[in-house]
Amino acid sequence: MKILRELVRRNRAGSGEALASVCSAHPDVISASLLLAKAHDTGLLVEATSNQVNQFGGYTGMTPATFVRFVHELADRQGVERERVAFGGDHLGPQAWRDQPAPVAMALAVEMVQDYARAGYEKIHLDCSEGCVGESAQVGDMLSAERAAELAQACETAAPDGRLSYVFGTEVPPPGGARAAEVGAAISPTTPTAARATIAAHEAAFLHRKLGDAWERAVGLVVQPGLEFGPDHIDRFSLDSPNLLSDVLSVRPCLAFEAHSTDYQTPQTFPALAKRHFAVLKVGPALTFAYREALYALDGIAAWVVSGAAPQTLPRIMDKLMLAEPAFWAKHYQGDPARLRILRHFSYADRIRYYWSGPEAAAATARLRASLETAPLPSPLLSQYFGEATLVRADALRGRCGQVEALIYARIQDALEPYFACAPASRPQ
């Protein structure tokens, strides 16, 4: 991806630039993000994970090609140029099939990454860190790198034009957030020794498969900078922490770091990470968390201005749906019934995001939005549920969308805005 490679070079030269990476399949999140990228006259990286999007549809029901069309249609609808959008595949590896023997899971992963490559994705995060059936939960650098190189070879076969850029590294939680055993534990940054070992293992594996040209297009190493979030806590990045990792890149001018799980960090964190050569800053749950905040606020407003509306209608519907189908949250939250009820709705992990696309939830949100679209929304009432900055942002969006959509987009953009403090000044080419 030309813009990413140029960004990495500029970042390594000390520009302090970093690209926001939105990892979400929610249409309102993507639409709001696209509009914000246009407002800043910059590009946006939109990514899909192997669990979200794969050759069988993932949990979104979309294949890699379908997801590209979906995002392009949203861009067209919002009047955002398609060329502002770059596509990435995140955590591409055997994770979605780790309950199968490794040869089966890897064969499916090969098929998946080739679909991503053919569909026009240009940033490929190769993540083979999780073990398959009969293996340890986390495999070592050597095996992970060997499998990553196998997938890179498949990508190069599917897209031999040299447009693919690779990201590698395993020192992050699996897709969906922190492991249950890690919640509450101290977050340890990746050590320079571990980072160098990961680079060396992947370089050796690529070169063993005669993928020297592909290795030259490896632009990102995923490491843990010392930040995370759990169901009800945030591990904030320490601005005063020593910068021990940047020296790892000293002899590799085309390689930068990628930061995952940067959700909910303070605005000062993102420029600080960019200066430490984190050129890609990923965000996901914080944006759907903001979407849920907006919907629940609108539900509260409806109880005041819509005739016959009962308070807390939407939360009750969502709680019923989550209790009826607990698979998306039960393994991630712990506690007594009262705590679980709070976490189902308000957790930073935002497992409620998996339920919005269901028919009953979609119908409930559509009813809520329709009931408020033409209703009078007095400023003093709005200020009870939305902050002043959100209302100012929503007013600016009113010329492009209705009053309800403007409030939802504004709240999402509030959460995403800090990422654009170090945005590159050019769109993807």
Quick overview:
The chain is of the alpha/beta class and 429 residues long. The longest helix is centred in the last third of the chain and has 21 residues.
Question: Mind explaining what this structure looks like?
Answer:
The chain is α/β, with parallel strands linked by helices and about 425 residues long. Helices cover about 45% and strands about 10% of the residues. The chain has helices at about 1-10, 25-40, 65-80, 100-120, 140-160, 190-210, 210-215, 270-275, 285-305, 315-325, 335-345, 360-375, 380-385, 390-395, 405-415; strands at about 20-25, 45-50, 85-90, 125, 165-170, 220, 230, 235, 255-260, 280-285. It has an eight-stranded parallel beta barrel, surrounded by eight helices.
